[in-house]
Amino acid sequence: SDVGSQKERVVTEEEWLQKWEMGNIGFHKEEGHPLLQKYLDVLLNGRSGLRIFFPLCGKAVEMKWLADMGHSVVGVEVSEQAVKDFFSEHSLPYCEEPVPEISGAKMFQSTSGNISLYCCSIYDLSSSIVGKFDGVWDRGALVAVNPCDRQRYASLMINLVEKNSSYLLVTVSYDPNKHKGPPFYVPESEIKSLFG
Questions:
Q1: Which residues are annotated as part of the binding site for S-adenosyl-L-methionine?
Q2: For the segment 38-92, what is each residue's pLDDT rounded down to a tens digit?
Q3: Strand 72-77 and strand 51-54: pairing?
Q4: pLDDT tens across 162-183, in order?
Q5: Per-residue pLDDT tens for 2-15?
Q6: Beta strands 133-138 and 51-54: pairing type?
Q7: Domains parsed from the chain with CATH numbers
Q8: Residues 130 and 160: beta-carbon distance below 8 Å
Q9: Which positions make up the binding site?
């Protein structure tokens, strides 16, 4: 198979939390991702005031950037530290409340109300909890999801988007036999079979 030894690889929630605790977050981009700036028109498609979803958001600076443009941003991240870092690094006041439908989950919302970050497993979310989205910025989520969970992830994403939504997906291309991931290699053929 062209995914090499990665097919069976599993990264646990604890490993992700440890990456944040240790500051081992080479995947975080301080300046924001150039591909979002390049393809912003594709994401927005001439529309304003969109609801935009950031799966496995970390402390992505693009969340504030899009919120400042008048969009409503919702993210999900397993690391509470990442979520709190996002608000403190942008000097954004926020409130924190439990998510009644998800045991142990918290939602952190900017006082302005246009940024809501859920701290929980992405698989605990559903459209009944977070609603539906006009756009998704998947900068490092699909490539971070364990290969065995990709179908589950894609099904959730498809369930969270409106019919006329835009989905920007960034993947990485490399020889999967030389790197165990994450980021995982996701061949284009698999992306097509996952998302149609």
A1: 16-27, 56, 77, 121-122, 139
A2: 999 999 999 999 999 999 999 999 999 999 999 999 999 999 999 999 999 999 9
A3: parallel
A4: 999 999 999 988 888 888 888 9
A5: 556 677 878 888 88
A6: parallel
A7: 13-195 (3.40.50.150)
A8: yes
A9: 16-27, 56, 77, 121-122, 139
